[in-house]
Design brief:
167 residues; globular; five-stranded mixed barrel
Length: 167
């Protein structure tokens, strides 16, 4: 069973001489933000929900399908550099960064073109304001020794927020 803590992974010999990597403790993982096509290595902060067993939440056990809290800072930093906008502010509207005059005209045109198609869901913006994002673990930490996953958004995020509010 993989717990949250300083990385500790043991190699395990399997049938045919193959190797599995049993993660006993992990504190980071690669998480992907699907709609923005952005993947970053982030810290796993806490296990918040598990459909199979509440005991796995209490003991902070990382398994496939677990809903975890991750650090939002790497994704927020990428978003602000990619779109030139500050997100996760306590106000309702995102504001433009002040260093627009420091950027070249070509970069300013590129950022303006990106902003035309930009959209950020309100629940995701609230999570950026708190500095934590909800994500789902898609790898099997006890088998591959890694904790990878996807950032929750859209109807899936709404579903898991409703399930967590229920308990």
């Amino acid at each position: 069973m993989t717990k949250i803590g300083e990385k500790r992974v043991h190699p395990v010999r399997c049938r045919g001489g193959n190797m599995k990597f049993r993660a006993l403790r992990l504190d980071t993982g690669n998480f992907s933000w699907g709609t923005e096509v952005c993947t970053r290595k982030v810290r796993v902060l806490d296990v918040t929900y598990n459909a199979s067993n509440n005991e796995l939440v209490r003991t902070k056990t990382l398994v496939k399908g677990a809903i975890v809290l991750i650090d939002a800072h790497p994704f927020k930093e990428w978003y602000e550099s990619h779109y030139g906008l500050k997100i996760g502010l306590k106000q309702s509207a995102p504001s433009a960064t002040d260093d627009a005059s420091k950027k070249s005209e070509r970069v300013q045109r590129k950022i303006a073109a990106r902003q035309k198609d930009r959209s950020l869901e309100q629940p995701l913006d609230h999570q950026f304001a708190s500095g934590r994002l909800l994500a789902k673990v898609t790898s099997r930490p006890g088998q591959c020794g890694r904790c990878d996953g996807v950032v929750l958004e859209g109807p899936e995020l709404a579903f898991y927020q409703k399930m967590m509010a229920r308990k």
